[in-house]
Amino acid sequence: MKGMILAAGLGTRLHPLTDFRAKAAVPFLNRPLIHYAWELLAGAGLQEIMINSHHLPHSIEAAVQDMRTEGQEIPPILFSHETERLGTAGAIGKVRDFLAGDTFVVCSGKIYFEQDLDQAIGFHQETESLVTLVLVPYSDEYSYNPVFLDDQNNITGFGPTETGTHPDQPHVFTGVHILDPKILDFIPAGPSETVDDLYPRFIQEGYRVQGFVSKAYWCECSTPQSYLMRSLEVLQKRGLDNLIEGEASPLCQGVVAPRSVQIDGSSVVKDSVLWDDVKVGPNSSLSGVIVTDGVTLGPETHLENAIVTPLPEKTEPLQAAQRVGDSLIWPL
Predict the structure, then answer these.
(1) Does residue 73 fall inside a structural domain?
(2) Are 141 and 133 in contact (CB under 8 A)?
(3) SS3 helix, strand, coil % of the chain, rounded to 5?
(4) Domain identity same for 190 and 59
(5) Residue 225 lies in a domain
(6) What is the pLDDT of residue 141?
(7) Does residue 201 lie in a domain region?
(8) How many independent structural domains does the chain possess?
(9) What integer best gives the mean pLDDT of the chain?
(10) Which domain holds residue 111?
(11) Which of 28, 68, 193, 229 is most deeply packed, by most CB within 10 A?
(12) CATH number where 139 lies
């Protein structure tokens, strides 16, 4: 079996974090998100994986290289760069020759998911479905359109229908598709979407489109607010006060920071995520802050509910951002 990781999105809702890394390369618990997608597929025994890219493709390639430098044995990984974004179905169609011949798995590159895919793949093979989508139960905390499932695990429709007016149970699509290779015959050349274009048509025409419901922990970091919230949630779920790989102030609580970060011992940092090569100067305080790569915060820096980034390469209206030295401060 082969797999594909979708990593060509613009990550518009995650701005300004995605000014500096593609969404799938954004660090989650000190590792690029795409690492978790790769482990999900590799853990199910997939031997060859294709990754598509568009926005900041070098950051995707660097994230994959990080796995190699960590000493992990990884199966062959190929890249499909899209000069024009093709959508989920179009991305699959572009590499149809690679995927043809056997059941294959497509996974969003921007999710954190603790499911064992062997169970979902076994379900797909037993039901002989054309499409199996891996779902999680719907919750009002999600802002995603629901996927409706009957008591036979058939997908009967997709949102935005109000959940209260639909007879079947609402679920949330995790971004993991398990697909029969016959689907490749239905994908046209050029841009198209799976959930918007292909799957509703399959349902109408009587093809088996099923949902495998997972009870495992899943999250997607679609906005800076949810990114910070989910980072702290998984930190707590793991029973950790902090996930700090380097030296840091003993006054840290709820902090995620890689080895290259330096936090002065006199500074108080709470409920914050710091990216690579960040320096926090003396007598500073951060609470509910995201700091992206390479930012230096001088002495007596006091921030709450903010994002700190370097100045972007492209000059554009800063809107809500405030320039402080060589950095921009954005409200969170």
Answers:
(1) yes
(2) no
(3) 25, 35, 40
(4) yes
(5) no
(6) 75
(7) yes
(8) 2
(9) 93
(10) 2-220
(11) 28
(12) 3.90.550.10
Angle, helices 117-127 vs 33-43, to 10°: value is 50
Bridge partners of 149, per DSSP, are 155, 169
* Bridge partners, 286 (sequence order): 269, 303
* Position 72 pLDDT exceeds 70: no
CA distances from 259 to 160, 230, 232, 290 (A): 43, 21, 18, 16
Q: Which residues, at least 6 apart from 291, have a Cβ–Cβ distance to it below 8 Å?
A: 272, 273, 274, 275, 278, 280, 297, 307, 308
Q: Are residues 97 and 179 in the same domain?
A: yes
Whether residue 304 sits in one domain with residue 179: no
Same domain, residue pair 121 and 254: no
Do 132 and 279 lie in one domain? The reply is no
Query: Which of 192, 220, 248 delimits the end of a domain?
Result: 220
Token duo for residue 172: 């949330």
Does 312 or 11 have the greater pLDDT score?
11
Task: Using the predicted structure, report yes or no on whether residue 315 has a pLDDT greater than 60.
Answer: no
Q: How many CA atoms lie within 13 A of 291 on its CB side?
A: 30
Burial of 272 (C-beta count, 10 Å sphere; 0-12/13-18/19+): buried
Burial (CB count within 10 angstroms: exposed 0-12, middle 13-18, buried 19+), residue 154: middle
Question: Based on the domain organization, do 208 and 101 belong to the same domain?
Answer: yes
Phi and psi dihedrals of 216, rounded to 5?
Answer: -75, 160
Length of the chain: 332
- Cα–Cα distance for residue pair 79/114, rounded to 1 Å: 25
CB 288 within 8 A of CB 274: no
Tell me how crowded residue 104 is: count the other CB atoms within 10 A of its CB. Answer: 25
Q: Which tokens is 152 given?
A: 């036979």
In Å, how far from its chain's centre is CA 131? 21
- Cα–Cα distances (Å) from 307 to 9, 112, 287, in that order, read 21, 22, 11
User: According to the model, what pLDDT value does residue 160 have?
Assistant: 81
